[in-house]
Amino acid sequence: MPGNQADIGVIGMAVMGKNLALNIESHGYTVSVFNRTSAKTKSFVENHEDKNLVPSFKLTDFVNSLKAPRKIIIMIKAGKPVDNILNQLASLLDKGDVIIDGGNANFHDTIRRSANLTKDGIYFLGMGVSGGEQGALHGPSLMPGGQEKAYEMVKPILTKIAAKAHDGTPCVTYVGPNGAGHYVKMIHNGIEYGDEELIDETYNLLRNIVGFNVDQLSKIFAKWNQGELDSYLIKITADILSRKDDLSSDQSVPIVDMILDEGENKGTGRWSSEDAMAIGAPQSLITESVFARFISMMKNQRMHAAQVLPGPEKKDQVKPDKDVVEEACQALYFGKIMSYAQGFVQLEMASKTYKWHLKYGKLAQIWRAGCIIRAKFLQKITDAFAKKPNLQNLLMDSYFAGIAKKYQKSARKIVALATLDGIPVPCLSAAVSYYDSFRAKVLPANLLQAQRDYFGAHTYHRIDRPGTFHYTWYKEE
Ligand code: NAP
């Protein structure tokens, strides 16, 4: 095998690495591939004999197989494994080579790794990759952050392999320095959690309050996918609800009814909430969606609580009116808008905190195709930021303000209906509360400040004059 022949290398031959390697190869590049367990590299290359793939079974051979300056994408389990591989690569690479971590790294790790590799003159991009297996193969949404010079070196490849939006724009853009790409991917995933929870709550209330069966719900979601809610997650929900269990003898049982209701997570939603707390961003939708997964994991406790804790009495429950399906559709869209409003506010606050200069309109643009949250309505976000690049909150854009005005009544009715009937709607209710908090001229934080001043002499500001004040709440004896 002649050395230095491959255009780019991929480390990690699991679902994402294999499909990304095939995607890159399909655009005319020769791709070197390496995996910790050699058997996986071997079987991958044997299964794709006709492709320009160069297998290596030692990391040194892999590095030597690449054209200079070397370009390496790492697609392995996030965390310590990435540090291990980077340590090994650092001693094998030359100044000016580029490493791209395409996994779901925590952005704090990416900032640290970027600083370490920069000392050795090695470029480092932390790149969010969204779209799962199919996206990696046919076109993902890519969110690269790091040195802009390094991005320019890999831009031709990334532009070719990225998903293309309906207007032909590739779903990749330079996001910003050091951890910016992984931060944006983290928020993408957090928003994905919110989208999923909003859909799941709507499914739950329509099923348990109105009494639709799973087939009927599949048709409802399929219909919603023809309108404003048109999105990948609504589409797959309709499909999931139409599927029957393949393991039961009774083939009419919906698969969803055979799946244990314990929602797992891999951490990106939690990280989004943690950083929202760290930078002071009001992020109730993502946070509630993470908590919804946590409480779902307490299955045994819930089973016990269901026996002993009563819900509303039948006589107190409310009957949905005839427009409930339309109202639920509007409530879901309203919730989605609040969630994205919060997501973009968090991005703006993070951009200032970490000095990233994020371009919000470009981010909405690269989420329009390829990724899990792809949706028709992302075009509206792109349009909003095109009109006003420094838009502070999506709710200040005329389209989103108009929808909020039109659909708030339905959102309130649906949240009230669910609450009165004992169905949990943590994200839908958080959406309504966020809307009402954001538009409130006066919040009870005046009383809060008085309480803080009372017990801790924390002082307060006044509405009628500048300065810091302390009230004499009690006289020392
Ligand atoms: P994964 O299951 O997260 O990781 C498996 C890969 O990591 C294998 O190649 C494995 O090698 C390697 N690995 C594990 N521990 C290692 C270590 N200590 N040293 C070296 N290699 C090690 O794979 P994935 O699902 O393809 O995801 C790859 C990355 O993309 C992850 O960060 C993931 O979070 C992110 N991501 C995944 C998806 C998705 O839909 N799956 C979507 C977007 C992003 P062996 O074969 O030797 O075990």
From TrEMBL:
InterPro entries: 6-PGluconate_DH-like_C_sf, 6PGD_dom2, 6PGDH_C, 6PGDH_Gnd/GntZ, 6PGDH_NADP-bd, 6PGdom_BS, NAD(P)-bd_dom_sf, Pgluconate_DH
Pfam families documented for this protein: 6PGD (PF00393), NAD_binding_2 (PF03446)
Keyword field: Gluconate utilization, NADP, Oxidoreductase, Pentose shunt
Reactions listed under catalytic activity: 6-phospho-D-gluconate + NADP(+) = D-ribulose 5-phosphate + CO2 + NADPH
Active site location: K185, E192
Domain 6-phosphogluconate dehydrogenase C-terminal: start-end pairs: 181-474
Documented EC number(s): 1.1.1.44
UniProt xrefs under NCBIfam families: gnd, PRK09287.1
Protein family according to the UniProt entry: Belongs to the 6-phosphogluconate dehydrogenase family.
PANTHER family: 6-PHOSPHOGLUCONATE DEHYDROGENASE
Name this polypeptide is given: 6-phosphogluconate dehydrogenase, decarboxylating
Species in which this protein is naturally found: Acetilactobacillus jinshanensis
